[in-house]
Specification:
Helix content: over 70%
Oligomer: single chain
Number of helices: 14
């Protein structure tokens, strides 16, 4: 019985897969939209699109406001992850290629593992540590092989700052998911991020008036899919596992970024890039394979989203 994955575990894994695929696609869309939109305007446009979709879902599901106990985590994750992270990543991707950006941002899972162990008491089993090491090696390989020429120091620093915001945002979000529903945490986190980015509103209006339709569609896509949908599936999966394990899952992103760049932009990956991608995926598989009894204990502590609101 312990060897058979529960329906909840399977759904959480499926949600994690959706998240990783959509977040990988975001790196490509950001690069395309970045030619017409400045970092702050792009972040605000993405967040506003996400808020509209998430808000409609909340109205349909009659979610209501999150309890006061969840607001601290929602506010911190909204400021650092939905707001700061997106602006820093957009700016960074104007300086470095998508593969390098994905590599640098993926120091985030290491920070999440360390912060999760320190602040949330997340376990650090050997298999998780081994998976982190393997995936990080793969991410380094992908990033180095996909970078063309020297990378901008400013771009690397911005992506590193984005990774820090991402890591602290995830760790702040995890406790909030114990107090409020998945859709509530995601919607109001996105709303907080949009409020933080409101100073860029005039830029967004000005740039949208002159941007090609394709770039504006990229902004809307980023808001609907990598934000509204992917952040919701992320929160669903995070509520049913540890922050460290979910962070390790995102190590698959650099490999998928290279694949999508190949398909969308016609950039053919080399053998070294493909080898790095295999390492990324192998590390994710190692980090997520285990824990029946403990994952059941974690799941037992998590709230059911339907009960809130």
């Amino acid at each position: 019985m312990n060897t058979t994955p529960s329906r909840t575990q399977l759904l959480a894994t499926a949600a994690a897969v959706v998240t990783v695929v959509l977040w990988a696609s975001a790196f490509v869309a950001i690069r395309e939209a970045g030619d017409s939109y400045s970092p702050g305007a792009l972040a605000l446009g993405r967040l506003l699109s996400g808020v509209v979709v998430l808000g409609l879902l909340c109205v349909v599901r009659r979610e209501g406001w999150p309890p006061r106990s969840a607001w601290r985590g929602i506010a911190v994750s909204g400021v650092l992850w939905f707001g700061f992270y997106m602006v820093a990543l957009n700016w960074g991707e104007q300086q470095v290629d998508a593969g390098t950006a994905a590599l640098v941002v993926n120091v985030g899972p290491l920070l999440i593992a360390l912060l999760g162990a320190r602040l949330l008491g997340d376990p650090m089993p050997p298999r998780l540590l081994a998976g982190l090491a393997v995936s990080f090696a793969g991410a380094v390989t992908v990033g180095l092989s996909s970078a063309e020429g020297g990378s901008s120091v400013l771009g690397v620093v911005l992506c590193l700052l984005a990774a820090v915001g991402y890591a602290f945002g995830v760790v702040a979000q995890k406790p909030a998911l114990g107090q409020a529903g998945v859709l509530q945490v995601t919607t109001f986190g996105c709303l907080v991020g949009a409020v933080v980015c409101l100073p860029f509103a005039s830029q967004l209006v000005s740039e949208a008036a002159h941007a090609p339709v394709s770039a504006t569609l990229d902004v809307v896509y980023l808001g609907v899919f990598p934000t509204a949908l992917a952040f919701t599936t992320w929160a669903y999966a995070l509520a049913r596992t540890t922050a460290s394990r979910m962070g390790a899952t995102t190590y698959a992103v650099p490999a998928l970024v290279v694949l999508m760049s190949w398909l969308v932009l016609g950039e053919v990956p080399g053998l070294l890039t493909l080898a790095g991608g295999v390492l990324c995926l192998a590390g994710v598989a190692v980090s997520r394979s285990r824990v029946r009894g403990r994952s059941r204990r974690v799941a037992a502590r998590e709230p059911r989203p339907e009960k809130v609101g």
